[in-house]
Amino acid sequence: MIHNVDIAIVGGGMVGLALAAALEDSELRIALIESRTINTDVTELPDVRVSALNRASENILKNIGVWNDIRNNRLSPYQAMEVWEKDSFAKIDFVAQDIAQPDLGHIIENRVIQSSLLEKVKRCSNVSLFMPAKLTSLNIGESEAWMSLDNEQMLTAKLVVGADGANSWVRHHFNIPLTHWDYGHSAVVANIQTALPHGKVARQIFTPKGPLAFLPFQHSSIADSERLSSIVWSTDPLRAQSLVDMSSEAFSRELTAEFDGKLGLCKLIGEPQVFPLKMRYARDFVLERVALIGDAAHTIHPLAGQGVNLGFLDAACLAEQVIANWKQGQDVGLKRNLRHYERWRKAEAAKMITTMQGFKDLFSGDNPVKKLVRGLGVSAMSYLPGAKDEIIKHALGLKGSLPELAKLGE
Fold first, then answer.
1. pTM score, two decimals?
2. Distance (Å, rounded) from C-alpha 366 to C-alpha 239?
3. Cα separations (Å) of 401 from 219, 343, 368?
4. 300, 332, 273: which is closest to 145 by C-alpha?
5. Distance CA 145, CA 5 (A)
6. Strand partners, 294
7. pLDDT tens-digit profile of 369-383?
8. Burial (Cβ within 10 Å: 0-12, 13-18, ≥19) of residue 408
């Protein structure tokens, strides 16, 4: 049997699910193809994979109807952020009240976001789920794409969306070139209990070995959550592997020292994990009857936590473009009809990649002269009128070119 749909989304991660949910109110027929069964179990201890969602992502999730589910499950708002350099006077902080905001974002487990989105998509009458199922072939015809799955099912679609992550099968299948480089870092992620409460403040220290972020949890379902944080510890790959191979006690001592003892003694909770960090930027976000979103199109350094926020904006922008084309009676899969999406998102991704690389380069190395320049520059930023506000408003997704779904509804 051949299933005929308008849009086939390959990948049931957070971004692919968000796109499917964003298309609910259209009459478009959607297929979502995911290679594995999604684990929706929410354990007492938070998962180590978390995201720092900004206001734009919050608005997208509100407008597609999943924010309340996430809030009822588990999310942790933070009201301030402190950033400093080890052994330097370079320091800057951001406070939500200073820009008349209730918070600077939310720390949420990826599993919680994905689970809420999946439940939403299951309720969408225009979405068919193929899970678990893998693409085995994909061919582009004149007016549609033809797909075969490993369960012997076949589909046709006017548009195929690659939302299948950094190692995208869709991107590889079409040999879409990448601009890429290795950041020379791996990220160690873990849950940490600290002696002192975090006070709903996100903290990041830059050290000669790489940045270390403490992301605060605060939820009634988590015991003693005011002392529980998720860390993202970026360092060279050999050191990262040695850290996860350490005993819990040795890891905790190393972490406490690296973090300047800011919250007192640190204690590792559960098992740490390690992930390589690479920048990727697809040359094409759009081909004939193909579009890329999320990590399939771009990956960036996690030091500012903007990766998933970029992905949600991709999903919202593509949904906006597709619905506009459909309402005008245009073919939703033609490359020329998706040019606006590609120009829009490539420009935003390129700006974010450049910004993240600039931050990384700025805080790399421990040359005394460079540290002095950094200290002076960061201090000046703290005192220049409006400079901090502009930075945090852009990071929150309160400024810039935004799709309608990323704006607060009436």
1. 0.92
2. 18
3. 33, 12, 39
4. 332
5. 10
6. none
7. 555 555 555 555 555
8. exposed
